[in-house]
Structure formats: C-alpha cells, structure tokens
C-alpha cells in the first residue's frame, strides 16, 4: 500500500499540477503537504484533499484501490481509469443531431452507471 503522501503526489501528477499548486488551491501553508510523509493528516485536511480530487478518504489513506466515493453513481472505473459519467454524457452534447438537455444527461449517466456496474467495473 502507498502512503497518503504518495497517493496525493500521484493524483497531482495525473492532474498535471505540482504539490505546491495544490497547496495554493487549497490555501494550505507552503510545503504542508510534505508533512504527509511523516504524519497522518487531520480529518478536515484529508476531506479537503479528497473533495478537491473527488476521491474517497479511504482511497487517500490507502485503505482501498478504488478512488470512487461510495454510493456515487456518477463515476466508473474502466481499465484502471476513473471516468466521470456525467461529464462524459454532457460532452456528448448531441444525439441523433439533437441537443441533450439535463434530463437526457441524467438518463445517460444512469445507463452508463448501470452498464459498468453489471460488468463489475465500479
């Protein structure tokens, strides 16, 4: 299992940002994330980081390999990649030449979620 620091560092790399940039975005002190190498973060700090990356706190703590938040039907893990199903549906924009509205996007999100659950990729 990876440490919380390694997981946060990996998430930053996947987002194309540095740890210092994350600290700035979360209004944290300079180099405060490097403290994760030695100490477990407070519950508040952990939740703040989890919210930023839209992952579970259990994932940040290394308790699970699945970053998806429990009960979230808007995300699926496919081939090791986390997909935001709502964003994927919204990016479709058109179906059969007609624009999608919010109800269409909600429907597509639920269909994609059910599909990935049935394949065991959630």
TrEMBL record:
Q: Which CDD domains match?
A: HTH_XRE
Q: Which segments does the entry list as coiled coil?
A: none
Q: Which GO terms describe its molecular function?
A: DNA binding
Lineage: superkingdom:
Bacteria
Q: Name any one Pfam family assigned in the record.
A: HTH_3
Q: Where is the signal peptide?
A: none
Q: Which InterPro entries does the annotation name?
A: Cro/C1-type_HTH, Lambda_DNA-bd_dom_sf
Q: Which residues form the HTH cro/C1-type domain?
A: 8-60
Q: What is the protein name given in its UniProt record? A: Helix-turn-helix domain-containing protein
